[in-house]
Amino acid sequence: MKKLQSLILTLFFYFIITTIYAQEDKLTVNTKTNEDKSVSFTAEFKSPGTYTVILNFKELSNSNNVGDNTYKVKYSGQSFLTLKPSNKDQGIGYSFSYSYIRGELNPKYDKEFIYTLPYTNGKKVRVGESSFVNATYFGTTTPPDWKVYRFFTSQSDTVTAIRKGIVVSIKDIYDMDESGKQTYTSQVNAVIIEHADGSLATYRGFRKGLYVKLAQVVFPGSPIGLSSNNSGNGQFNISLMLTYLKSVDFAKKQEVKESKSMYGFITPYFYNLVNGKEILINNQNYFVVNSPVILQKEMTKKELKNLVKQ
Fold first, then answer.
1. pLDDT at 175
2. How confident is the model over 116-142, as pLDDT tens digits?
3. What is the DSSP string of 29-94?
4. Which residue has the higher pLDDT, 9 or 237?
5. 114 in helix, strand or coil?
6. CB distance 132 to 84 below 8 Å
7. Rounded CA separation 15/32 (Å)
8. Going by DSSP bridges, is the β-strand pair 269-270/114-115 parallel, antiparallel, or unpaired?
9. Which among 100, 106, 221 is positioned nearest to 159, based on CA atoms?
10. How far is the C-alpha of 158 from the C-alpha of 55, rounded, in Å?
11. Read out DSSP for 207-273?
12. Nearest alpha carbon to residue 216 among 281, 260, 164, 288
């Protein structure tokens, strides 16, 4: 059988409430024909973290073992699908398109997880809740689970990780406008950290010169960068949102007003001394209290030993 060589590389660009999950680092799906005439599919990408890849076969012959067309890929070079020939004496004919998006689809994230506040122990912060930018500027409907916090301090301060995770995306290119005149801009420095349960923490609004690197493992309290005065109200702040991938519906091109996020939003619990955890209240002040139990909760034995040595 003549092997079909055409590879249709249709990369779908999707709209989400911010640009932070945009495909700034391309993921490429490659194929390889093996000695037994099977075909292996691998994903290559530079940015670390988990991706969901969706394959759509335009043509497929001499193979019928394609099940779900959605695949989780955790590292570059991972083989995520192998097609086997129905007739072992003939090759497989195929052509396909693919799309991809950051995150694991519908992960079993921990809804009761207790996070630390994103500043160093003893700091006083004021908590605000951010409005949905697309509703404010484009007339869309705010998602029912929408939850994004802003943490305000009187001066620039060190922002820290709220949970153990791996740094999967960094944007550290903007000199922030701290004149106090700017009320909104999408050009902000940001960090995305992927957690063990598949949730993603996105921190936005740093001064240029972040303290972390791609693929770095951070822990609760690990410094990420300095907050900036980017909100136009004279106070230094960063925004924080916790999300998970809930949909990979790339099929429909929607107008901005009708667009829906493919990510769900998590309302987190944060640690406090009174009852151990609480959901933050808008426009309230909080003092950061870090408990060793919370800080060390997800550390491995090796990491705990290294902590003792420090």
1. 85
2. 999 999 999 999 988 765 545 455 667
3. EEEEE-TTS-EEEEEE-SS-S-EEEEEEEEEEES------SEEEE-STTEEEEEE--SSTTSPPEE
4. 237
5. strand
6. no
7. 32
8. parallel
9. 221
10. 42
11. PSS-S--TT-EE-TT-EEEEBB--SSSS-EEEEEEEEEE-----S----GGG---SEEEE--EE--T
12. 164
Mean pLDDT of all residues in 144-168: 94
Pull the structure tokens for residue 223: 């410094």
Q: Measured between alpha carbons, how far is 149 from 40 in angstroms, rounded to an integer? A: 43
From CA 149, how far away is CA 183, in angstroms rounded? 16
Check residue 23 and give its pLDDT.
44
* Distance, CA of 254 to CA of 71 (rounded, Å): 24
Is the CB of residue 243 less than 8 Å from the CB of residue 199? yes
Structure tokens at 251: 């099929």
The whole-angstrom separation of Cα 34 and Cα 266 is 43
Instruction: Locate 181 and state its tokens.
Output: 């005149």
Cα separation, 212 vs 156, in Å, equals 18
DSSP state of 123: -
Query: For residue 43, what are its two tokens?
Result: 């994903």
